Amino acid sequence: MGKSRLEAFSDGVLAIIITIMVLEMKVPIGTDLAALKPILPVFLSYLLSFVYIGIYWNNHHHMLHTVRQVTGTILWANLHLLFWLSLFPFVTGWVGHNHLAPAPMALYGVVLLLAALAYFQLQRAIIRSQGTDSLLAKAVGRDVKGKLSSILYASAVLLAYLSPWCSAALYIIVALMWLIPDRRIEKVLMTGERA
């Protein structure tokens, strides 16, 4: 299978995930701005999840640029990642409708953590397939940011029962860490193309 088919399938799934999440925001009854107040928590949870899906889409896109050949292991690792991402609409809706309650906040973090681990597995599958001297292996190096993200997600899950606000703050911090463009893969691709 060519990587373009894998990219197209993944892009389609991510587009559907975003569509499902936005459908959670029901049109309010009323014509003044006060009518929007009840859906504010749903909107904020949607906004955070939209940012996360955007981060995954962007990094997935860059990562697949390093792939020369798609293997069965890469296909299954990609599906594993898409499975966890497909749960975003559910946990996003649950958090938004329950105003940062502990159990929804904890489950949100569990899904974020498992998506991060699935992304790491996909990364490892690509590196195993392409070799330890591959462009992706050079780009990610020790992947400190990825490992730190997983630690923060796990911490946020535990904090959800003590302080859902602190848990939410950690989710936002990780999103902000990844919003700053990660140029590692782009740099390696640029230097690899010139060589």
Automatic annotation (TrEMBL):
GO terms for molecular function: potassium channel activity; proton channel activity. Its main location: membrane. It comes from the Bacteria. It catalyses: K(+)(in) = K(+)(out). Keywords: Ion channel, Ion transport, Membrane, Potassium, Potassium channel, Potassium transport, Transmembrane, Transmembrane helix, Transport. The chain crosses the membrane at residues 12-29, 35-55, 75-95, 101-120, 151-180. The keyword Oxidoreductase does not apply. It is found in: Membrane. One of its GO terms (cellular component) is membrane. It is a multi-pass membrane protein. The keyword rRNA-binding does not apply. Belongs to the TMEM175 family. This is DUF1211 domain-containing membrane protein. It comes from Geomonas limicola. The lineage of its organism: Bacteria, Pseudomonadati, Thermodesulfobacteriota, Desulfuromonadia, Geobacterales.
